């Protein structure tokens, strides 16, 4: 039984503009690393072995950057893509195939 987490990263990041005009919100840097990378590092330390990223806005850029930064030996990254933003519940419904089973999971 591995611990899983779902991170909702599909929003447009309108409150962080102009920083998000050229990159998705999770790739905005804090202390020289993307915000999302800080979250993934904390999840690894907490024992999470699988992270499902609910992506939408600029998802190709997000996938490319995260795949370069994340050590796949420490954690598995799965992408669940929303074709259009579906609020908070939509990504949960789309990611259900990756989170099914009786075990609890973390949502960020």
Automatic annotation (TrEMBL):
GO terms for molecular function: transferase activity. Residues 4-108 form the Nucleotidyl transferase domain. It holds the Pfam family NTP_transferase. Transmembrane segments: none annotated. PANTHER family: SUGAR-1-PHOSPHATE GUANYL TRANSFERASE. InterPro entries: Mannose-1P_guanyltransferase, NTP_transferase_dom, Nucleotide-diphossugar_trans. Keywords: Transferase. This is Mannose-1-phosphate guanyltransferase beta (Trinotate prediction).
């Amino acid at each position: 039984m591995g611990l899983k987490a779902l991170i909702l990263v599909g929003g447009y990041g309108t409150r962080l503009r102009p920083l998000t005009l050229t990159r998705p919100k999770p790739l905005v840097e804090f202390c020289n690393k993307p915000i999302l990378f800080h979250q993934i590092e904390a999840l690894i330390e907490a024992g999470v072995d699988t992270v499902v990223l609910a992506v939408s806005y600029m998802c190709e850029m997000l996938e490319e950057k995260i795949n370069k930064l994340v050590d796949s030996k420490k954690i598995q990254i799965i992408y669940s893509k929303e074709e259009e933003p579906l609020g908070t519940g939509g990504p949960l419904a789309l990611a259900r195939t990756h989170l099914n089973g009786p075990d609890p999971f973390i949502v960020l």
